[in-house]
Structures are given as C-alpha cells and as structure tokens.
Design goal:
Length: 261
C-alpha cells in the first residue's frame, strides 16, 4: 500500500471533514500558485478593480477552503512556467494547461477539470479559409499562434515551421491577424471567444475542432498536493460548485474581453 505524505494525509482529512460538515481541519499551509494573469477567463486583471481574478482564482480559493490551505498567487509568464514548476519554484500552476504525455514527464497533473477545443480564428471578411485544409493547400496563407503551447504543437502537425508565426503571447498573434500580417490563428475556443468581444466586427471562428484537450493543474513531480486537490475537484464536480462556476465564466453572461483589459 502506498504511504501518504503528511500534507496529503492532512489535506484528504480536510476534504473529508468539509464533505461531512465536521469540525476544524488540520492546516495544510501556504500553496504558491503560478498564474499568468493574461488568459481569459481563467486568470486576468479585473478592468474595474485592478485586482487579479478569474476561474483559476475562484477554484483554488475553494480548493484551499476544502483542504485547509492558504493560496498564494504569483504572476509568472507562460513561457517557462511549466519548467519553473518542474524545478520547484512554485507548488502548482493554474493557466489552462493542457494535459500531455510530454509535459507529464516533468510535472504531475491533476485530474482533467475541463475540455477545450482548438479552433481557427480569422478576419471577418476572410473567404479563403473554412478549415485547416485550406491553409495547408495554399502556401501563401500564414498561420500564427503562441509559442510553447499545444496550439503551436497542433499547428506543426499540419504545417512546416517556416509557415507558422510563433508569438510570445496570444494578444500579439491576434493583433498580427487583425493587421493582416498573418491569415489565421490557432487558439483555444474559449480564449477565441474572449478575443471576439468588441472585435466581433473584424474576427470570427471558423472550421471544426482541430483538437479536444483536457486541462489540468500542474505540480512538481511527487507533490503531496496531487491527491488532496484531486479529491477536492471531484467533490466540487459532484456538489455542483464547478458547474456553477463554469456557467459564470464560460456562459453568455461573461462579457469581459481582451479589449477591456
């Protein structure tokens, strides 16, 4: 039988006590969580308050209520975030991170908490592109995405590297699309919807899903947080917490766009 670490044992006990309406649970301690603060609707700076907020914040706040920890959010750039977690600079990272076999070689993942489809974002007047096949067939078309993402990896399965423009952040890729420097962007559908907003008159999503991915939180290999956070996520799925939060952030009532940030 696998022996559980002290943090894992305390945290699972906290989850059980919360679920059963029991008394005070043992304190797990601070959990340092890396976030980008630039990925709607998962994490961003609220344009009205100037405070960081989003799906990731609300989920981790609730996780820490359930396993009795204190979340400490630390802003970090996407590029290098996964390696930084692998190196132990953070206890966890929350940034819409796709679960992949390659990444799982250097970090531990939580259970998948949501599925996201990858889509093509193009200009509203674009009539040459209805699917990725059109881009593959026309060598004059240029595709953009963000470096170090599964969107970039998906792009490389269709096109050679010299036909892919990789940007440090998605806003740069989208601006290049609007200005006509590139012709399409591979992007997660939820993020793509976030870019439409005030740009609905200049941008549109086209074509079928290019890939359906599960997202998860990441931790350094062997982290004691994996099991208790998984238990908390399962409980949040069962009691409706995640369903309500998904409706709030992924439903039509969420109107914040990148133009607001």
């Amino acid at each position: 039988m696998k022996k559980l670490g002290l943090i894992t044992t305390l945290a699972i006990l906290a989850v059980l006590l919360t679920a059963c309406g029991g008394g005070a649970a043992p304190e797990v301690g601070e959990v340092i969580i890396a976030v980008e603060n630039a990925y709607l609707p998962f994490n961003y700076i609220d344009p009205d308050t100037g405070e960081p907020t989003g799906w990731d914040y609300e989920v981790w706040d609730e996780i820490c209520v359930r396993i009795n920890c204190t979340p400490v959010y630390t802003e970090a750039s996407w590029e290098g975030m996964i390696q930084a977690v692998a190196d132990g600079q953070f206890d966890a990272a929350a940034d819409g991170i796709t679960i992949t076999e390659d990444r799982a070689e250097i970090v531990d993942f939580s259970i998948g908490y949501i599925n996201l489809d990858q889509r093509l974002l193009v200009r509203i007047d674009e009539d040459r592109i209805e699917s990725m096949d059109d881009i593959v067939a026309d060598e004059s078309l240029k595709l953009g995405t963000q470096t170090g993402t599964t969107n970039y990896e998906t792009a490389t399965t269709f096109l050679p590297a010299d036909r892919i423009s990789a940007f440090e952040q998605f806003p740069f890729a989208v601006q290049a699309l609007i200005s006509g420097d590139i012709d399409a962007v591979i992007i997660d559908e939820v993020a793509g919807q976030g870019y439409l907003g005030e740009n609905a008159d200049v941008l549109k999503l086209v074509g079928p899903s290019l890939s359906s991915d599960q997202l998860g939180f990441i931790y350094p290999k062997g982290s004691d947080l994996v099991e208790p956070v998984n238990e908390a996520l399962k409980a949040m799925m069962e009691d409706g917490f995640l369903e309500a939060l998904n409706t709030k952030y992924f439903g039509s009532s969420f109107t914040i766009t990148y133009d607001d940030l």
